[in-house]
Each structure stands twice: as C-alpha cells, then as structure tokens.
Amino acid sequence: MDAPDLDTVFDDLRSTLDFMSDGGVTDFDCTGESLAAVKRWGTGRRAPETHGSIASRIDSCRRCILRENAVGTITGEGREDADLMFVSAAPGLERENPAEASALFTRMIEAMGISRDDVFVGTIVKCDTGGKEEVLPEHLGGCVFHLKQQIQVIRPRIIVTLGPEAASVLLGPGKPFAALRGRFHSYMGARLLPTFHPAFLQDTPERKREAWQDLQKVIKAMGLSPASS
Q: Any idea what the CATH number is for the domain that residue 89 is in?
C-alpha cells in the first residue's frame, strides 16, 4: 500500500480537527496521563464512516445559520464508489433555469463516454434554502468538512469542481480561477480539475469549447472513450 501524500495527511488532520471542534473541543490536554491515553488509540475498532452516517450528521448539522431556513439537506447523488466526482459550491446556483442547466450537465457527462449514474455529484453547501438565503463564503467553509468526509468514503480518482467558488474553497483563495481552471491539482489523494459551472456555460455559450477541452483532459486521465458526435 502506497504511503499517503502530505496533502492527504494534512486534509485528514483538518477534517479530524473540524470534527472535534464540531463536538465542542476547544483545547488539548497534554498531561502525561492524556498522552498515555493517546498512545492507546487505534488498539480498538472504530466503525467506518458510511454514506448513511455522513448523511445523518449533515441532517443534524447546525454549524451555520443556513440550517435555520433550509427546506432540506442535500447529500449528493450518484454512484457511491465512483471514480469520477463532480462538486459545485451550492445547490440552486442555476435556480433560474434548473432544468436546462441540469440537461446541459448531463450532456457534458455523457459526451465524456460515461453515464451520469456512474459518477457522484455533490455540493459543498449541504443545506437547500430554496433560494431564500444568500450563500456566503463562511457557509462554504463550514460545510466543506462534510464534503471531505464524503471524499474519504467515495475515494474518487478524479474530482471536477464546477465554477470558481468550489475551486476556491477546495484549493484555497490565493489564485484566480483562470490560473486554476483546466489544470490538475492534488487533493485528498485524488486529482482535482476545476472547470466552468453548467449554469455559467448556458449564459456564456462561447466558453463551452474551453469547458470541453477541460473535460477531455479528464477523459484521457481516466481512459474513457468519448461519445461520437
């Protein structure tokens, strides 16, 4: 078994610290007795995370005010052990024309030579507010913990982020979207490639060619056979 890269180690550490913070941990006890207890960690068995346990945690999450006005939660859809995962920032980004944006997204996936049922589609924000609440950067930061747990369970080979918001949250805000898009980046043991959101492509169809060029890199990396036009 290959040793995990440093990005994966640090992402796992962040996820663990986020989980502890969510449970009310505010500091660490470094006395000799506590350190001895830490050495005993791993001697017992812990139930592995599942999609069900993550969904339950999402449903009970109160990390930000979005949950107060949410009409439901969104855990994602698709194959739960998918090699390919798509991630957008939040549900409802295409609320003005959801059917058209969804249909375009499906066509994008099928053009790659794969069925939408064979990929996993998720969002960073897990609360669906029905468009009644503006999604702010702090909401994205609070929810990303749940997405990271999903990635750990799914273990995709490639993650495609849709839109600049999702790319910024997962890769950091230090670089403009133009510098991130269309390039592979290392993320939690997977290769991550940012591209445009389908809703943006509907409003700006002249960028579809660039989006297809991005997806062709994914096709090559996964060894897919793109659908004939």
A: 3.40.470.10
Q: Which two tokens stand for residue 135?
A: 């999604």
Residue 77 domain flag: yes
Domain that holds residue 83: 7-20+48-222
**Percent share of the chain, pLDDT over 90:** 48
* Per-residue pLDDT reduced to its tens digit, 89-99: 987 654 556 77
* Beta partners for residue 208, in sequence order: none
Q: What does the pLDDT average to over 205-218?
A: 97
**101 CB contacts (<8 Å, ≥6 apart)?**
94, 198, 199, 202
Q: How far is the C-alpha of 9 from the C-alpha of 201, rounded, in Å?
A: 35
Per residue, the 3-state secondary structure of the chain, as one string, reads CCCCCHHHHHHHHHHHHHHHHHCCCCCCCCCHHHHHHHHCCCCCCCCCCCHHHHHHHHHCCCCCCHHHHCCEECCCEECCCCCEEEEECCCCCCCCCHHHHHHHHHHHHHHCCCCHHHCEEEECCCEECCCCCCCCHHHHHHHHHHHHHHHHHHCCCEEEEECHHHHHHHHCCCCCHHHHCCCCEEECCEEEEEECCHHHHHHCHHHHHHHHHHHHHHHHHHCCCCCCC
Q: Which pTM does this prediction carry?
A: 0.78
With a CB cutoff of 8 Å and minimum separation 6, the contacts of 218 are 84, 112, 158, 160, 193, 224
Q: Mind listing the pLDDT tens digit for each residue in 202-211?
A: 999 999 999 9
Section 28-55 average pLDDT: 70
